[in-house]
Amino acid sequence: MTPMKSISPVLKKYTPPALAIALFLMAWSFGAKQIETSLGQVPGPAMVLDQARILWQEHVAERQKAREFYERQKDRRAAMLEVNPSATVAAVSYTGKPTYVDQILTSLKTVFMGFVIASLVALPIGIICGLSKTVMRALNPLIQVFKPVSPLAWLPIVTMVVSAVYVTNSAWLPKSFLISAITVSLCSLWATLINTAMGVASVNPDYINVARVLQLSPLKKTFKVLLPATLPLIFTGLRISLGVGWMVLIASEMLAQNPGLGKFIWDEFQNGSSQSLAKIMVAVFTIGLIGFVLDRIMVELQKRVSFERVHA
Amino acid sequence: MIIEKPIVSEIPGTAKTEQRAMALDVRKLTKIYPTPNGEYVVLRDLDLQVWKEEFVSIIGHSGCGKSTLLMMIAGLTSISGGEILLEDRRIEEPGPDRGIVFQSPSLFPWMTALENVMLGVNQVFPHATKAQRFEIAAYYLDKVGLGDALDRKASALSQGMQQRVGIARAFALKPKVLLLDEPFGMLDSLTRTELQDVLLEVWSKEKTTAIMITHDVDESIFLSDRVIMMTSGPAAIIGDELDIRIERPRLRKDVLERSSYYEYRRHLINFLEH
Questions:
Q1: Of A13, A97, B93, B225, which has the maximum CB count within 10 A?
Q2: Structure-derived torsion over alpha carbons of residues A94, A99, A102, A106, reported in degrees to the nearest 10
Q3: Domain boundaries, given as residue ranges, for chain A
Q4: Do residue B123 and residue A206 have CB atoms under 8 angstroms apart?
Q5: How many CB pairs (< 8 A) connect A and B?
Q6: Residue B203 belongs to a domain with what CATH number?
Q7: Which residues in chain A are contacts of B120 at CB distance < 8 A?
Q8: How many domains does chain B have?
Q9: Distance from A215 to chain B by nearest Cα, in Å?
Q10: Does A36 touch chain B (CB under 8 A)?
Q11: Contact B153 A215 (CB under 8 A)
Q12: Is residue B1 part of a domain?
């Protein structure tokens, strides 16, 4: 085999997407030049890349400042203790503005929290719906009505309820974080619920027969037969839920002012500097890439747990 | 010194019934399915007796209700009329005293071969030690030729191997009666022959009372002591039965050389064609 021939399948695989991306970048930079907004020209790829670099540099600089701050504090403390060993020196935490990376981390934390809440609610209800046709019939109208509701509609209600119920405003669990997380779970739990219910209800009847012949207890039947048999579908549901949650998160962060990517976009939009559009576009790509990575992680998990091949 | 075997029965005339204790007694069994166009009678007043240690095949056209009959014995399908007694006890629900080999192997694909068999063994022998239970499961898996594949995932096994696990799982329950629902129907003919041999070998050691549904005439003769022929539905009953007087152990090659084999064959085919 010549080297050329061994390369060709690789070329075949990567050439079309590479070409498509190149075309997209060209069309973008050409199109961007044609439109003049009140915030200046629509940024092209080069400007966006530039802003991404600046955001990263700001992050690095901010971290450096924080390190220096703590360093200074330590020195001061040591000096004070030297003069008076019994002095109590209060530790002050650094209060710089959150960097772009901080905002990404907040968003990830929020979506994870929302996803966990959604799963904790959806999985048990889904299993019960799958086991009992009556429960399924009872809950079906509610599920069908609430499923298509937009996060924007939920947010005011969640905000009011959380504000009424959750009074302590601790630094560990800020209200805005909780509001965003709950909104995320309200929108994302449906996919998991429906998939779990469908999965449990459609378990191969032969499996059920085997469980009946062996006279497995209800608990053993659920954990040894029903859940393992449903796991592939449950994971499909979880995967969709996480995707929906990530999408919903941005909108709810914008409105709840949770310091994440959504707020970053909103702030830049309000800010209206000549770099704002480019920064927002950086955020768009970040959101897309993180969403893609989250989806891949779910696919990998799905492959781990399921006995069937996963088509993704 | 020769120790004589104790005589089973001292009362003359009862020796035969003593030897042929009844395992399963199906009395006036009826199955009716309600349909939008009225009732559909699958079986009506079907009677069938199976003796202990007997291997019985039930043969009939597809849709005649033979699988329904087996599933009712298994307790997986409800009874519309009549009753089924297993060793004088009425069957109400499914249980491990009736081991089933399904047409599709019905293994749990997320478990290994061993785990699939162990699941049943754990249920039937809850007081045995873990080592003893492992021994039972491993013994039967070895008997069906899977001694080297204990830890393979069921989903990674071929259809034939999966059905071997299915056979091991049913025998490992030490059931009173073994129910086989067209166990080899989904296999290619080479694998089918192989598995018939495996089944026959394990069965001749265990002598578990067995009822097998099949539509394969040769299979029914080769494996059974008696072949039950069911009439075509609706309202199917037992049309005819045939004792297979070929002594065991049976070897396929020898069986095929007998002239009686071809007489049995003719008899069965004749029934099925009319």
A1: B225
A2: 110
A3: 48-97, 100-305
A4: no
A5: 52
A6: 3.40.50.300
A7: 214
A8: 1
A9: 6
A10: no
A11: no
A12: no
CATH H superfamily, domain A100-305: MetI-like (1.10.3720.10)
Which of A206, A213, A307 has the CB atom closest to B104's CB atom? A206
Predicted ipTM of the assembly: 0.85
Residue B36 within any structural domain of the chain: yes
Q: Which residues of A touch B110 (CB under 8 A)?
A: 228-229, 231, 307
DSSP for residue B236: B
- The string over B167-198, giving b where at least 16 C-beta atoms fall within 10 Å of a residue's C-beta and e elsewhere, is bbbbbbbbbbbbbbbbbbebbeeebbbbbbbb
Mind listing the pLDDT tens digit of every residue in chain B (274 residues)?
444 444 444 444 444 444 678 899 999 999 999 989 888 989 999 999 999 999 999 998 888 889 999 999 999 999 999 999 999 999 999 999 999 999 998 999 999 999 999 999 999 999 999 999 999 999 999 999 999 999 999 989 999 999 999 999 999 999 999 999 999 988 999 999 999 999 999 999 999 999 999 989 999 999 999 999 998 878 888 889 999 998 888 888 888 898 899 999 999 999 988 7
Rounded to whole angstroms, the Cα distance separating B220 from B225 reads 9
Q: What gap in Å lies between CA A284 and CA A287, rounded to an integer?
A: 5
Query: What chain A residue is nearest to B173 in terms of C-alpha separation?
Result: A214
Range of the domain at B234: 22-273
Does B151 fall in a domain?
yes
Give the three-class secondary structure for B177. strand
